[in-house]
Amino acid sequence: MLNKLTIKEAHQGLINKDFSCQELTESYIKEIKRKDKDINAFITTTFDLAKKQAENIDEKIKQGEKLKLLTGIPVSIKDCFCVKGVQATAGSNILRGYIPPFNATSVKKIKDQGAIILGKVNTDEFTMGASTETSAFGVTKNPLDLKRVSGGSSGGSAASVASAMASYSLATDTGGSIRQPAAFCGVVGLKVTYGRVSRYGVMSMASSLDTIGTITKTIEDSAIVLKEIAGYDKYDSTTPKVKVDDYLDELRGNIKGLKIGIPKEYFVKGLNPKIKENVLEAAKKLESLGCEIIDVSLPHTKYAIAVYYIIVPSEVSSNMARYDGIRYGYSTTNDKNEIAKNLMDVYTKSRAKGFGDEVKRRIMIGTYALSAGYYDAYYKKAMQVRTLIKKDFDDVFEKIDALIAPVTPNIAFKIGEKTDDPLQMYLEDIFTAPINLAGVPSLAVPFGETKKMPLSVQIIGKHFDEKTILKIGNKLKNLV
User: Fold this and answer.
1) CA distance 179 to 117
2) Which residues are catalytic?
3) How far is C-alpha 136 from the geometric centre of its chain's CA atoms?
């Protein structure tokens, strides 16, 4: 089946004219029509756009034009990215029907390559969640077990790739939103260094933590896509002019002699014993390839979740202020069932009806943490501890090349299992949030399984050293 091909395989097939771009695209469209009524990965499909794009690519092939690696490859895009002329909701009622007039930088880059856009996929509302259960468009189910969540917030991205409804997906990771759903669905999730990929045109949740990354079928596919979307962008001041490596070429490199640390703080009470065993087994495999495995410590890890859930709501309360019922999105002024008496009424009623419970919860927590008399005690203190967490990583990376750790404390949980307990849901980020606080890159690599559900390990690297974690992950994946 054409929709099972990797990016490189599909690229070669198009070059060899084994099939047309229209045939490749149609194979994905058929799969979406067949499966998505059960999975609910897509919020908006763009089949007419995809078919038109495919037709244009076939004409270029006919004319003998050289194809780039992403030319003609069908992709799904998380619904917090702006795609010109296509609805962007961020999984929220407040943006239902909003049509962006421009493309996000990462979207523009793959469109310039000739990517085929299949549609926008589900996310927890404004990416706030770990299961897609906060989405105004319903939960995305795990393709491997429809009774379980696909993870979050990029659950739609992970499910679309895992079910072969997309070749790859653009997604975001603020505290684990790429790696956790990738782990739950058995696909590859890459969270990049903060600033490695432009955030321009992507709806912000927590601006000092948000990163743009990929969910793919293989690590080779991750390397291909990252090469195209990474780099400096004049529209995003957080993107430095740091060299973009040839990640695909780097995969061929040797990992013999690399020092890989195992952080003791990531093997805590509550971690599924099978996941612990799986990570240690992965470490042994890397040791057999010539890596040196070293026990290390990241002592401030225990404060990471508390710090994360002060910083994130604080930045959420600021970023959500733009959705006010005046500029764009849902407004009571356009709702016959709502009557606003004055401007304040427009603000409060529009936000009350447009936002879901989790967004409201974080806005209230964040506004409290930033308020007079509490700022120093909460937000300022959290930022100080964040500096210590980052220093832990800086110190340990002076001695080693990468870290290996669990991605999640358990396998994908049942739908509805944690919706009534926000604290339990927040603890899903226990092994992923520290990486965002430090701003370093991390890769979720499928490795092993239990109870017929996939397991993954997390490879964590130095700032802007995605090439090393991709190389390690690729060697490990080839041993499975």
Assistant:
1) 22
2) 78, 153, 177
3) 19
Convert 206-231 to b/e letters by CB count within 10 Å (16 or more is b).
bebbbbbbbbbbbbbbbbbbbbbbbb
* Fold category of 2-250 in CATH: Amidase signature (AS) enzymes (3.90.1300)
Strands 188-191 and 292-296: unpaired
**Alpha carbon distance 364, 387 (integer Å):** 25
Q: Which residues of 28-45 are buried (b: 16+ CB within 10 A; e: fewer)?
A: bbebbeebbeebbbbbbb
Please give the chain's pLDDT, 480 residues, in tens: 899 999 999 999 999 999 999 999 999 999 999 999 999 999 999 999 999 999 999 999 999 999 999 999 999 999 999 999 999 999 999 999 999 999 999 999 999 999 999 999 999 999 999 999 999 999 999 999 999 999 999 999 999 999 999 999 999 999 999 999 999 999 999 999 999 999 999 999 999 999 999 999 999 999 999 999 999 999 999 999 999 999 999 998 899 999 999 999 999 988 999 999 999 999 999 999 999 999 999 999 999 999 999 999 999 999 999 999 998 889 988 888 888 889 999 999 999 999 999 999 999 999 999 998 899 999 999 999 999 999 999 999 999 999 999 999 999 999 999 998 888 898 899 999 999 999 999 999 999 999 899 999 999 999 999 999 999 999 998 876
